[in-house]
Design a protein that fits this description.
alpha+beta, Jelly Rolls, Arc Repressor Mutant, subunit A, 2 domains, 13 helices, globular, transcription regulation, Tscrpt_reg_HTH_AraC_N, transcription, DNA-binding transcription factor activity, Homeodomain-like_sf
Length: about 325
C-alpha cells in the first residue's frame, strides 16, 4: 500500500468515526421522539425523524444544516437539493421551500443539526478574519456579476465536522457553554466561509455588495408581506433600479419580488389553517387575498392541492 493510499484510508476512517460520534450524540439528545429539539445553545437545534415524511412547505430562515444520518430533499421553485451525511446545506437568505425526509427508519432515523445564522455575526467574522473586502470578488458583487443563489449544498470536510463535534460535546458540560459555545459557533462559520462555496455566504454579508442589498430586500418583504408591494418604492429604498432589483432578486431567490411575496402569503395561510385551525376563506383574507377563488388557484399551484383538500388530508379527515 502506497503512502498516499494509506493516508486516504486513515482519513476515511477518521471521517467515519466523526460521523458515528455525531449520530450517537444527536440520537441521545432526541430520544424523546420525532421533531425539532432545542438545546442549551440558542442557535443550535437537533432534528429527528424515524420515518420518511410527506413534502412539507416551510419558510427557511438563514441556517446551516448538517445531516448525521439519513437523507433529505429540499425544493426551491424547480431546483432540487439533496443533502445527506456527505453534504451540508446553507440557506443564506430567507426562502420559502418544500422539504421532505426521504431516508429514515426507526433503527436508523434521520438525524440532523441546524444552526441558525445571524448575518451580522457573519459580517463581524469576515472583518475579524481580514476578508473585507475580498478583492476581485467584491467588485463582482458591486457590479452585480456572478450573483449566487441564496441556497447551496456542499461537501462536509473533516475540519468542519471536527468543529461541529466540538460544539456538540459542549452540551455535556453546560457550565462551559457561555464562554466556549460562541467560540465553537464562530469556528463552524469560519470553516464554511473558508470552503469552496464560502464566497456565497460572504457576498451576502458584505455591505458593499448587491447580494447584501437583495438580502435586505428579502428581509423587508418578510416583514411587510401583508402590505401591497410597490416595486418602484422597494427599489428606491435599496438604491437600485427596478430592472436591476428584479434581475438580482431572481438570481438569489429564483423568484421575482412579487412571486416571493405571494409564496410568503401562501405559506402563512397554510400555517394558519394547519396549526391554528383557521378556515380557508378566513386564512386567505388574513394574508391579503380578496378573492377566495384566486387564493385557491394559487394555493393549488404551489402546494399541489386546493386548501381544503390538503388540510383534510393532513388531518386525516374525509374530503366529503
Amino acid at each position: 500500500m502506497s503512502a498516499s493510499t494509506s493516508a486516504d484510508t486513515i482519513a476515511q476512517r477518521g471521517h467515519c468515526a466523526q460521523q458515528a460520534e455525531l449520530v450517537d450524540r444527536i440520537a441521545r439528545l432526541t430520544v424523546a421522539g420525532d421533531g425539532v429539539h432545542g438545546t442549551d445553545v440558542r442557535q443550535l437545534h437537533l432534528i429527528r425523524m424515524d420515518r420518511p415524511t410527506e413534502c412539507s412547505p416551510s419558510v427557511y430562515e438563514p441556517r446551516l444544516c448538517v445531516v448525521a444520518q439519513g437523507r433529505k430533499v429540499v425544493t426551491l421553485s424547480d431546483r432540487v437539493y439533496h443533502y445527506d451525511p456527505l453534504n451540508y446545506l446553507v440557506v443564506s437568505v430567507t426562502l420559502p421551500m418544500i422539504g421532505q425526509v426521504v431516508e429514515a427508519t426507526p433503527d436508523k432515523p434521520y438525524l440532523c443539526l441546524r444552526i441558525d445564522i445571524d448575518p451580522a455575526e457573519i459580517a463581524r467574522l469576515i472583518v475579524d478574519a481580514g476578508q473585507s473586502p475580498p478583492g476581485e470578488r467584491s467588485r463582482e458583487a458591486r457590479d452585480g456579476i456572478g450573483m449566487d443563489l441564496g441556497l447551496y449544498a456542499a461537501r462536509v470536510n473533516a475540519t468542519l465536522m471536527d468543529a461541529v463535534l466540538r460544539l456538540m460535546r459542549l452540551l455535556d458540560t453546560p457550565q462551559d457553554l457561555p464562554v466556549l459555545a460562541p467560540m465553537a459557533l464562530r469556528e463552524i462559520f469560519y470553516r464554511v466561509l473558508m470552503g469552496d462555496l464560502g464566497h456565497r455566504l460572504r457576498a451576502l454579508a458584505l455591505n458593499d455588495s448587491r447580494s447584501h442589498r437583495i438580502a435586505k430586500a428579502v428581509t423587508m418583504l418578510r416583514q411587510r408581506y401583508l402590505l401591497p408591494l410597490c416595486i418602484e418604492d422597494l427599489a428606491d429604498e435599496l438604491h437600485m433600479s427596478t430592472s436591476s432589483l428584479h434581475h438580482q432578486f431572481k438570481a438569489v431567490t429564483t423568484m421575482s419580488p412579487l412571486q416571493f411575496q405571494k409564496h410568503l402569503r401562501l405559506h402563512e395561510a397554510r400555517r394558519l389553517m394547519m396549526i391554528d385551525g383557521m378556515e380557508a376563506v378566513a386564512a386567505a383574507h388574513r394574508v391579503g387575498y380578496e378573492s377566495p377563488s384566486q387564493f385557491s388557484r394559487e394555493y393549488k399551484r404551489l402546494f399541489g392541492a386546493p386548501p381544503r383538500a390538503e388540510v383534510s388530508l393532513a388531518r386525516g379527515l374525509p374530503l366529503g
